[in-house]
Design brief:
The chain is mainly β. It contains one helix and six strands; from the N terminus they run ββββαββ. It has one domain: OB fold (Dihydrolipoamide Acetyltransferase, E2P) (Beta Barrel). The longest helix is centred in the middle third of the chain and has 10 residues.
Amino acid sequence: MANLNKVLLMGNLTRDVEMRFTPSGMALAQFGLATNRKFRDSKTNEMREEVTFVDIEVWGKQAETANQYLSKGRPVFIEGRLKLDTWDDKQTGQKRSKMKVVAERIQFLGGGGGAGGQGGQGAQGGGAPRAASRPQQSRQAPPAPDQDMGGQDAPPEDLDIQEDSVPF
């Protein structure tokens, strides 16, 4: 029997991107996404809205591009997979878990609007890219803000990949 783990989400960022690097130098970006669902209540026949908040994790070059161009309120389309993180709570000793989406592809939507969907002005002001402190400089320019960032999976931390050996 085949398995499939695929998630498609469209929504707005609930917070600015948080950028980190692993000890091996791999970029990791995390942010929240809000998706809305409108439906008619069968009992009252009124239109209702339900909001779902999802934590998103992005790795590698896509993480750096997301950090540069995304900010709170920005609409995006995410294609990825579900991942369940589990850990022991240090204070209570109980097992904890959290479901998140690992983005394999991100497409920026809209014209760079920030909170409230206003065109042109992101939360960083003027839609200018944010700089990320990183261990080494990239030789490849990131895609334009309204371009697709492609589907890249995060390689394991112990894998040493040279940029010259990557075909894209």
